């Protein structure tokens, strides 16, 4: 009987209704589900060791031999059932014992040849070695499954053990007709066909010479074998298909077409307080080209903290405003909204375009006024928080939405904004410095512009790790910095269990520190403050009336005070690396050389310390991001989960970047050949991913 990919598992011989139910409970319904349930590691049980050469305990070995004696007994002391056997080959014999597996005795008859895999232990008697509860398989004519080869190891699924799952996979692979995948036709050399990839990812064979076998063995462990890469390619092609369809759908929508003339160029020159960096020029050119097209832009502007994303966005806004449309500029916090409002008001003062602000904490009358201006449909730039998304705010001529620090925004919020206008252009800014190929996939259907260059004159921030006992010297340093016109952020972590508690800690700390720095004007900001109070303190800090700012991570993103030259971070071990990098990005923005002091808490683990040492040694946002990514995985990394990305079975954004790019290329080519429907039918995806593909 031959199986198809969609055959239900219950139709397999040997799978009764009870087993089928257990399998279903763990998400395995069909043959394809089992094929996509991949081994998480492999054991090399291919080379039997001669029994006579076993001399040291505590190593995992494979042996092949003949059973020469089997007996069962009960241990007197505990309630244990033992099967004891002696297994020998032509070099020697070794005792084998199984605990509480009485059925073993029934299968082992003297004279049976066995493969055994297990760990050699020193016998309880202290005399000689024995094998304890090894895995075993009777040597038969058919190909061995559990032993005598490289063996796949599966995570058990409740009552379904690895051995059962292994035989299930083997039985399916013997009968299934996988057929060619569409990608098989267009694959570059080096990738096996899909059917072979499935067969070998479950049951790899170390053929060829020793070197070749060693290499494949290592690749299997790293999930970079040709079989893993082929499966990753299939999955990434599924992702690329979703993205390509989204893009195609977007390109069918008409969007406001913007124009650029000498008038806009003159305004732009008047707005800019400095020449743009080459990276900024490139990004502006890419954005403006998008804005001139009749389809909505969807672009990610990605640049490390301090790379100057704001002016790039401002120039994009200018083009849209000058073309007669409105712009909504969304910030994740009130502090940031206020700051962008201040910056943008300043930038746009040489132009005729009004800049407005709308946040949740404003008075109802103020809000109503802004809403009224917007409702008239005149070109205007409005900066705001999520209050901008409220239904009562109408944008009759919304031409573009700018979203700052996008990782704080969910898909639905983005969608809401898009729904406000007919189909506005979308510019998303993020400081999360991710490798370009990752950005392409993490942000899905967005095109990417990268600011890979900092404005001139920046000096790298020097980061040091200090223990508590360094406090007196740190305070001296602060006095000197402030005397010379520098300003200081002092950041406290929010304790997740209790915001109230961490606020209390912040207050106590602040009082203590203020006593230690009586001559220095200090201020405090945190998330629980009224926005107006917070804003007042921030302004005082920006103006230099406050020199030391105690803060929670509300200052993490976007805050821009060029005079700030020192950042002290309390309990840095409680922050993720990416977050530390964001915080550190608040200093080093002006002419002063800047410092970041990581003030360790008590009992910091060696791993945490190593992590911080890595961070202190580099200012490179990409390196930090990559390390963060490696330590925490992509899910934690950018709020990927809120974007509802599927879980891949073989593919990893980190390990398979080459496949990711290849998949996107192949899918684009197939699309341009008008073969998307064929592609959609022809991909063999794991169920979670298959369901993600939206209808055409
Ligand atoms: P981010 O990319 O982190 O949002 P900002 O837009 O806040 O960075 O810019 C950081 C600082 O660099 C701001 O003070 C800004 O005025 C300044 N800046 C931006 N572009 C340039 C440039 N081309 N030359 C000099 N300074 C610049
Ligand atoms: Mg910014």
TrEMBL record:
Domain Helicase C-terminal positions: 470-630
Gene3D superfamilies noted in UniProt: 5' to 3' exonuclease, C-terminal subdomain, Nucleic acid-binding proteins, P-loop containing nucleotide triphosphate hydrolases
Keywords, alphabetical: ATP-binding, DNA damage, DNA repair, DNA-binding, Helicase, Hydrolase, Nucleotide-binding
Residue stretches in coiled coil: none
GO molecular function: ATP binding; DNA binding; DNA helicase activity; hydrolase activity
InterPro entries: DEAD/DEAH_box_helicase_dom, Helicase_ATP-bd, Helicase_C-like, NA-bd_OB-fold, P-loop_NTPase, RecG/Mfd, RecG_wedge
Protein name: Uncharacterized protein
Organism of provenance: Thermoanaerobaculum aquaticum
Species lineage: Bacteria, Pseudomonadati, Acidobacteriota, Thermoanaerobaculia, Thermoanaerobaculales
């Amino acid at each position: 009987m031959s199986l198809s990919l969609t055959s239900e598992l219950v139709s397999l011989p040997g799978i009764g209704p009870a087993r089928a139910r257990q399998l279903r409970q763990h998400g395995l319904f069909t043959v394809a589900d089992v094929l996509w349930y991949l081994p998480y590691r492999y054991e090399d049980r291919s080379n039997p060791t001669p029994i006579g050469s076993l001399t040291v305990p505590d190593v995992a070995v494979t042996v092949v031999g003949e059973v020469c004696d089997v007996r069962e007994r009960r241990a007197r002391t505990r309630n244990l059932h033992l099967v004891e056997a002696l297994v020998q080959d032509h070099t020697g014999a070794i005792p084998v014992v199984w605990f509480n597996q009485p059925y073993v005795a029934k299968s082992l008859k003297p004279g049976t040849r066995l493969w055994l895999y297990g760990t050699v232990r020193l016998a309880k008697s202290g005399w000689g070695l024995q094998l304890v509860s090894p895995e075993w398989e009777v040597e038969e004519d058919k190909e061995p499954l559990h032993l005598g080869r490289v063996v796949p190891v599966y995570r058990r699924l409740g009552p379904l053990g690895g051995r059962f799952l292994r035989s299930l996979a083997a039985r399916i692979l013997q009968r299934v007709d996988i057929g060619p995948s569409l990608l098989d036709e267009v694959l570059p050399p080096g990738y096996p066909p899909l059917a072979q990839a499935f067969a070998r990812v479950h049951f790899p064979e170390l053929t060829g010479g020793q070197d070749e076998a060693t290499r494949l063995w290592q690749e299997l462990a790293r999930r970079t074998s040709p079989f893993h890469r082929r499966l990753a390619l299939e999955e990434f092609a599924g992702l690329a298909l979703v993205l390509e369809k989204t893009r195609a759908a977007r390109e069918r929508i008409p969007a406001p077409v913007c124009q650029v003339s000498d008038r806009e160029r003159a305004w732009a020159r008047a707005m800019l307080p400095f020449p743009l960096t080459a990276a900024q020029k490139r990004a502006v050119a890419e954005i403006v080209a998008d804005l001139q097209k009749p389809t909505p832009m969807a672009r990610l502007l990605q640049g490390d903290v301090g790379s100057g994303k704001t002016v790039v966005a401002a120039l994009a806004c200018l083009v849209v405003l000058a073309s007669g449309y409105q712009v909504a500029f969304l910030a994740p916090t009130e502090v940031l909204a206020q700051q962008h409002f201040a910056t943008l008001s300043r930038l746009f003062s040489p132009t005729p375009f009004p800049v407005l602000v709308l946040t949740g904490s404003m008075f109802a009358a103020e809000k109503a006024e802004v809403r009224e201006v917007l409702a008239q449909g005149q070109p205007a730039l409005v900066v705001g928080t999520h209050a901008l998304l409220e239904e009562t705010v109408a944008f009759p001529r919304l031409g573009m939405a700018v979203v700052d620090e996008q990782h704080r925004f969910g898909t639905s919020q983005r969608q809401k904004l898009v729904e406000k206008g007919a189909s506005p252009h979308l510019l998303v800014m993020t400081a999360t410095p991710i490798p370009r190929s990752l950005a392409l996939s993490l942000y899905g259907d967005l095109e990417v512009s990268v600011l890979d260059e900092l404005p001139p004159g920046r000096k790298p921030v020097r980061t040091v790790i200090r223990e508590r006992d360094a406090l007196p010297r740190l305070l001296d340093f602060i006095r000197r910095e402030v005397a010379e016109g520098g300003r200081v952020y002092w950041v406290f972590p929010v304790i997740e269990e209790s915001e109230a508690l961490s606020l209390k800690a912040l207050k106590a700390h602040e009082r203590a520190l203020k006593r230690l720095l009586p001559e220095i004007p200090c201020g405090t900001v945190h998330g629980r403050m009224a926005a107006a109070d917070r804003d007042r303190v921030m302004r005082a800090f920006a103006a230099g009336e406050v020199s030391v700012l105690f803060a929670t991570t509300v200052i993490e993103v976007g805050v821009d005070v060029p005079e700030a030259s020192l950042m002290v971070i309390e309990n840095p071990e409680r922050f993720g690396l990416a977050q530390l990098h964001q915080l550190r990005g608040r200093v080093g923005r002006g002419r002063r050389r800047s410092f970041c002091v990581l003030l360790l808490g008590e009992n910091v683990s060696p791993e945490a310390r190593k992590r911080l040492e890595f961070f202190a040694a580099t200012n490179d946002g990409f390196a930090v991001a990559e390390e963060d990514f490696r330590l925490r995985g992509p899910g934690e990394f950018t709020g990927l989960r809120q974007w509802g990305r599927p879980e891949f079975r073989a593919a990893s954004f980190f390990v398979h970047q080459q496949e990711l790019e290849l998949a996107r290329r192949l899918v684009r080519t197939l699309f341009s050949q008008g073969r998307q429907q064929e592609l959609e039918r022809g991909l063999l995806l794991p169920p979670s991913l298959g369901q993600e593909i939206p209808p055409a």
